[in-house]
Design brief:
Elements: E1 6-7, E2 15-17, H1 19-22, H2 29-41, E3 44-48, H3 54-68, H4 72-76, E4 86-88, E5 93-94, E6 102-104, E7 107-110, H5 136-161, H6 168-172, E8 179-180, E9 183-185, E10 196-197, E11 199-202, E12 208-213, E13 219-222, E14 228-230, E15 237-242, H7 244-249, E16 259-261, E17 269-276, E18 283-284, E19 298-299, H8 300-311
Parallel strand pairs: 1-14, 2-3, 6-10
Antiparallel strand pairs: 3-15, 4-7, 5-6, 7-9, 8-17, 9-17, 11-16, 12-15, 12-17, 13-14, 13-16, 18-19
């Protein structure tokens, strides 16, 4: 049986007040230093005073619960497509673990920026929405826009902390391939196998993730010693974690930390991650500490498409 993780002291995953970044204040050295330490030492942090209205969060949570309560055929009518937009069903199989497939006791709805179908830019397409819930689209897109402003503030903080300039990452995220994905986790009692939990151990593939989680808990983070520790919800905060591409960009200075979800609380769990992914033309190569720029780097569009094809075979993404 999978052992229950110890409760994480809040000091172990830092809580950073980002109001100075969000408000664009000039005297933000302490905030940038705290952000830098959290990304280097943990790869996870809580952010508070982020500026996202509670009403925006509450509206999306309410619409999310209505969506996941729909009959399964209605949800499957907008099933995940090859552009990574749409519904991913409960108990889907994925390869998020590096060496094995796992069953995720989770269902989700993937959306990106609303864009016309564009064969030249594979990530561009309209989203897929259920006809019976007209309030879901505005709730999701309003939340997307508000949290994206938080992400831009964080990008400026990352750029300043790394000596790249405040706008460096903002430019890399132009015409972003970011995805918003509300999730539902039914209760899971006494899971027996790590390949059969809410979400199997993984690290996120993009730049970074901003997560809202409800008060059930369930998110667990793997420490550098290999210990799994719980990252409990803190009212008024989001959880931020570094993704694989940011780890590459920073040449390992920032950590893309493995994490998983086990919903042990006996109630339905909901979470809303916004995966901040750069534009398809962004280079996937070290930006700091490299001897010389890579003259022919892998581009993010190729990297992310290959990752999504590997992780989510259910999407049937073409080669």
């Amino acid at each position: 049986m999978i052992p229950v993780s110890r409760r994480l002291d809040f000091s172990e995953i830092p809580v950073v007040d980002i109001s100075a970044l969000v408000e664009g204040r000039s005297a933000i050295d302490a905030t940038i230093a705290a952000l830098d330490r959290a990304c280097r030492d943990v790869g996870f942090l809580y952010i508070r005073n982020h500026g996202v209205a509670q009403a925006t969060i509450d509206r999306l949570v309410a619409e999310t619960k209505l969506f996941f309560a729909l009959p399964e055929p209605e949800k499957l009518a907008i099933a995940l497509d090859q552009r990574m937009r749409g519904y991913i069903p409960l108990n889907y199989r994925s390869w998020e673990g590096e060496a094995r497939a796992g069953t995720s006791h989770q269902e989700g709805l993937w959306v990106g920026h609303e864009r016309p179908l564009n064969d030249a830019v594979w990530f561009d397409a309209p989203n897929r929405w259920p006809a019976s819930l007209p309030g879901l689209k505005p709730a999701m897109m309003d939340y997307f826009a508000e949290v994206e402003r938080v992400g831009v503030a964080l990008m400026r903080g990352f750029g300043a902390a790394l000596g790249l300039g405040r706008e460096h990452f903002v430019k890399l995220f132009e015409h972003s391939t970011s995805r918003l994905k509300p999730n539902h986790y039914p209760p899971q009692h006494n899971p027996e196998n790590v390949n059969d939990i809410g979400v199997v151990p993984h690290s996120d593939s993009g730049g970074f993730t901003v997560l809202w989680q409800d008060d059930n808990g369930g998110l667990e983070v793997q420490s550098k010693s290999g210990e799994w520790v719980g990252a409990p919800p803190i009212p008024g905060t989001f959880v931020v974690n570094i993704g694989n591409v940011m780890q590459i960009w920073t040449n390992g200075r920032y950590s893309s930390t493995p994490h998983r979800v086990i919903n042990r609380n006996g109630r339905d769990r909901y979470s809303i991650p916004l995966f901040f992914n750069p534009g398809a033309a962004a280079p996937v190569t070290p930006l700091v500490g490299a001897a010389a720029p890579d003259p022919n780097p892998l581009l993010y569009g190729t990297y992310q498409k290959d990752e999504w094809r590997r992780i989510f075979p259910i999407a049937r993404i073409p080669a």
